[in-house]
Amino acid sequence: MIDLKGAPTRSLSDFEAKGLEAIQNGEDLFVRETPQGMLMLGAIRSVAQCVKCHGGERGDLLGAISYSLQRTAER
């Protein structure tokens, strides 16, 4: 993880910023529907194995993953 400390990052989108706030307040999944599909931001939380080596508490927010589902043309 030390190697990742200087890794390049990008700015959060408005959706990601709102979603991050929601998961920091206890939500596990933040979802918004758009005309093109769905946007989702999911929490990555620690489990017992993480806590055993790294400390903290089970369920601590470690990060998030942002993804989108695009609608396909109907047949």
Description:
This protein has 75 residues and is of the alpha+beta class. The protein has two helices and three strands. The chain has helices at 14-24, 48-54, and strands at residues 29-34, 37-45, 61-70. The protein has a three-stranded antiparallel β-sheet, covered by helices on one side. Strand 1 (29-34) and strand 2 form a beta hairpin. The relative contact order is 0.19. The mean pLDDT is 91.
Brief summary of the model shown:
This protein has 75 residues and is of the alpha+beta class. It is built from two helices and three strands.
Structural class: alpha+beta
Largest sheet: 3 strands, antiparallel
The average pLDDT score comes to: 91
Q: Count of DSSP helices?
A: 2
Q: How are the secondary structure elements laid out?
A:
Blueprint: H1 14-24, E1 29-34, E2 37-45, H2 48-54, E3 61-70
Antiparallel strand pairs: 1-2, 2-3
Key terms for this structure?
2 helices; single chain; 3 strands; 75 residues
